[in-house]
Amino acid sequence: MEIALIAALAPIITQTLVYSTPLVFTALGGTFSERSGIVNVGLEGIMVMGAFSSVVFNLTFAETYGAATPWLACLVGGLVGMLFSLLHAVATINLRADHIISGTVVNLMAPALGIFLIKVIYGKGQTDTITESFGYFTFPVLKDIPILGDLFFKQTTLPAFVAILVAILSWFVLFKTRFGLRLRSVGENPQAADTLGINVYVMRYAGVLISGFLGGIGGAVFAQTIAGRFAVTTIAGQGFISMAAMIFGKWNPLGAMGAALFFGFAQNISIAGSNLPVISSIPAVYLQAAPYVLTIIVLVVFLGKASGPKANGQNYIKSK
Amino acid sequence: MAQENYVIEMRNITKQFGTFKANDNINLTVRPGEIHALLGENGAGKSTLMNILSGLLEPTSGEIFMNGSKVSINGPTTANHLGIGMVHQHFMLVDAFTVTENIVLGSEPTKVGILDRKKATAEIKRVSEQYGLSVDPGAYIRDISVGAQQRVEILKTLYRGADVLIFDEPTAVLTPQEIDELIDIMRGLVQEGKSIILITHKLDEIKKVADRCTVIRRGQSIDTVNVRDVSSQQLADMMVGRSVSFKTEKKIAEPKKVVLSIKDLVVKESRGLEAVKGLSLDVRAGEVVGIAGIDGNGQTELIQALTGLRKAESGSVELRGEAITNKHPRAITEAGVGHVPEDRHKYGLILDMSLAENIALQTYYKKPLSNTGVLNYNQINSYARRLIEEYDVRTVNELVPAKALSGGNQQKAIIAREIDRDPDLLIVSQPTRGLDVGAIEYIHKRLIEQRDKEKAVLVVSFELDEILNVSDRIAVIHAGKIVGIVDPKETTENELGLLMAGYSLEEARAELRQEAGEAVE
Amino acid sequence: MLISGQDPIAGYQAMLQTAFQSPKSIGEIFVTAGPLIFTALGFAVANSAGFFNIGLSGQALCGWVTSIWVALTMADAPRLVVLPLAVLAGALAGALAAAIPGLLRAFFGTSEVIVTIMLNYVFLYTSTHIVNNVMSKDFMSNKGVTKVIGENASLRTGFLKELSSGSRLNIGIFLALIFLVLIWFLMKKTTLGYEIRSVGLNPFASEYAGMSSKRTIVMSMVISGTLAGLGGVVLGLGTFGNFFVQGSSLSIGFDGMAISLLGAGSSVGIFLSAILFSVLKLGGQGMPLRAGVPIELVDVVIAAIIFFVAISYLIRFLLAKASGSKKEVAIVEELDGKTDPTSQEGGKI
Description:
The complex is a heterotrimer.
Chain A: H1 2-35, H2 43-65, H3 69-94, H4 99-122, H5 148-153, H6 158-176, H7 178-188, H8 190-195, H9 200-227, H10 238-248, H11 253-272, H12 284-303
Chain B: E1 8-17, E2 20-30, E3 35-39, H1 46-53, E4 61-66, E5 69-71, H2 76-82, E6 84-87, H3 99-104, E7 110-111, E8 114-115, H4 117-131, H5 146-159, E9 164-168, H6 176-191, E10 195-200, H7 203-209, E11 212-217, E12 220-226, H8 232-240, E13 258-268, E14 274-284, E15 287-292, H9 299-306, E16 312-319, E17 322-323, H10 329-335, E18 337-340, H11 344-348, H12 355-359, E19 370-371, E20 374-375, H13 377-390, H14 407-420, E21 425-429, H15 437-452, E22 456-461, H16 464-470, E23 473-478, E24 481-486, H17 493-500, H18 505-520
Helix pairs in contact in B: 17-18
Chain C: H1 8-20, H2 23-48, H3 56-73, H4 79-108, H5 112-134, E1 140-142, E2 145-146, H6 158-163, H7 172-189, H8 191-201, H9 203-208, H10 213-240, H11 251-262, H12 267-291, H13 296-310, H14 312-322, H15 326-335
Antiparallel strand pairs in C: 1-2
Helix pairs in contact in C: 1-12, 2-7, 2-10, 2-11, 2-12, 3-4, 3-5, 3-10, 3-11, 4-5, 4-10, 7-8, 7-12, 8-10, 11-12, 12-13, 14-15
Main location (chain A): membrane
Keywords (chain A): Cell membrane, Membrane, Transmembrane, Transmembrane helix
Subcellular location (chain A): Cell membrane
């Protein structure tokens, strides 16, 4: 009995991790950006660029790097995401554009640019399926822990654990280091930071570029684990869900991670639910809608007012 | 000419913004160990000059010398290294951070990039003890009092080793008690060898604490005087450029019927605690009642309850005999109440809307400004033009956004809006906050005018001078209740101070008698 | 285009040729523009109130499904009855859909950003569910596709069809134009519009002025949703004539947002942007064939245009500098300078 339960739960846990990982990365990225005071609704577009570049890299270099390909592709995705976010950074920080508009531009441009380039490179509307994906990973020692080992450490997805590690690291950086303190100060009261000699512009660039990097990785992970290729429909809403996770997690990396895990779980349940006895008899729509309705309810009941960093969304102008 | 040793000398400083000269050939000298006041009206150029000294701005031309050697201050960090620290008027603090985090921000002690909180806290404790500035290092800025926040601002400069401290309008947000504490702090700092530049437009404070004073008017330095040798009147005249009157001329009040009657009012504040605890007060037609009190004793909640913005838990508020307790704000204004709020930018105006639209803010839904939901902009604009003319609001026209006006003119517009509706009761909170002497003069005149038209006026202010100047009766509020009502002609600042601290009227008078008796002996 | 080795002129030529090649294609421009104008207006109204309504797609979807459903249910009723009813039903559906985030924001302070994102998904799945499981089987022509509505419920008219040589041109565009004027009037000339703008700019002062910010917030969202719903109605009763299961959120939601931003939220701006957008989209379809330029470039161009609008400060600054007037430069700096919200600083009188 127990074993059957474990056997049923384990894949759910794994799948949850699979779906959540891209969200965790991107939500973390959003956290850095908004903590520095730049609203980044362009996460969706950044994920697209990350997905695009990682798939292209994967297809091109799969033979050269073998099993390491997906990891390298993720880095590439991160770098491309970072480059793309530069657009948003320059627009909002130097050119004082409205953050929402600039982010929207990113979202509009990314899929178009991606597909355009795919057509140029490959001559068709979507790429082939990649050959080297992350596959399943079993932790060498941890797998032998009774119960927990079977649930969490056997046949699981490694990027998820990297994501969790990055989340913890992010929390540490934001709250325990000098860089994090300065980054947050720029998002709360840029004028105060300025009077203390902190370069507001540089800090905000850092925030946006980090968000570009992490968002790009998020897109890359998604493309290589769930989608398997790049097409116009590859990234559909994940960027926005990550944003929601960030707000839900109150702009705290650990909270954002938790929220992202929750969303990943919810998205997964509707698909995997058909395997579980009770759940399969519920009409699909309820399962599909459930996570979203649940989020709204939780928001209303528990979180009340949405409040992020104080100077979030405001352009800072240094007078000389 | 004998060369004096100045710790700071600013020579021929000019700062131009486009075609506008904020500072025009200003000269300033500060002796070591002195408290040097910089006096001028709002907009005169004092803040600009100090922003240059503290590195936030660069001068268009001119030179700065420190202890005789020329320096070039190209940023706040440089200023800090030179030993110049600024205590800003609008605190440069991060609400969401702790005291420690705010003080060390930008100069954090770290180990490999990780914040060394222990070291920071220890250092802060040391500095705070040395200068007698008590703070709780672990407290969050949003939770501490305004006076404590200011101490944090001061500590920020001392932590970085400032020798010259610039205080920008430091008393604008302090209670009388906190002001005295600040004066003691400043004297203590001077004893420790610091030099202080005090930017202010408050003459009595200059007289209390400054050694010399430089007067700035319209971007130019007018004169530098020894404070001991001049009178407040002389200083005021130099500042404004003409003769200024401090006391508003008024005839004796002849109060008639009771217009506002508050009985046993109980109001809770945002966190659920009672802020107004059974307050009773009457205001009659033809009189000005001033509510004096230290910020945080329930005035804000009282006004909010009177204007319908906060629920009253119990008690009653009656206007001309009709109950208006807990009615909707609009119903209350319609019943004949005008309100000038304490924060004009947050509550009084919509800065991005035109001046005309702001003037129509209270009456836009009524004829002739609108008809069955459709606005009549011709009417709105001509109404605004009339008010602008009558109340001397200085603006290009009625179509500019409200944010284009100076603070004084914004306040005039709000007062015009409220008074023109001819309310039987006019409630004003901090009516002259942030305004200069000329503006204050004007607004006080208007308030007295209302009273002479047999309207009732209720004034809440933290400025005792203001209360003493305009009120016919002064009600002192403490801990949510009125502890005493006195006649401004007979009371003294000391008596008011004691009442504000919570003494009852008898206790206060007894205390003063005793002190007077002791003094004689 | 140049960068990727295509011939830009040929590309633009192809685009314009395709877009304007015939009365039919011109008609199609208006077909596309109609729903977009509605969603753009929806975004603009919510934006004035200080809201970021990302839920336009979901609200439009509600309008679409509802209007088709009503039309199919009343297949035999006379046109005068069915058409208005279907339109109203769709508008109402959009209104209710937007009322949810509005109410939650007004009474609980819940972030409308998250709620609208969530609801988009909810409505998406619900619409699929309705089509597959709830609607009567008689209404379906295929799995996931409903029958086409009868003429009695269609926004298309014979006259318009002829005029545009067989395009799907329908009175939806005229409805859109009417609403462009209506909304302009509402926002600029009515007390409700004044209140919406006021609450959007400064909810505190609005409370002080006796406005009910709760009521205003809900009203503005309801109006926004109604408009989005009407956009869906036009898609249903005009463009397509039926409903088919959607795999992802409607693009008119997001595109409407872009158009509103491009048009700076003004009625005239929205109209022009919507037309421009439609021309680009339709014309773009011809580019691959005629000039070998992939269609996605259109989206890139649109995005670039919005980008330049967004950095208008820089453009104005450069223009002012170029004209050599120092005063103008200072004015631009001043006007766009940050206003200190806490400053109580007075000034000379």
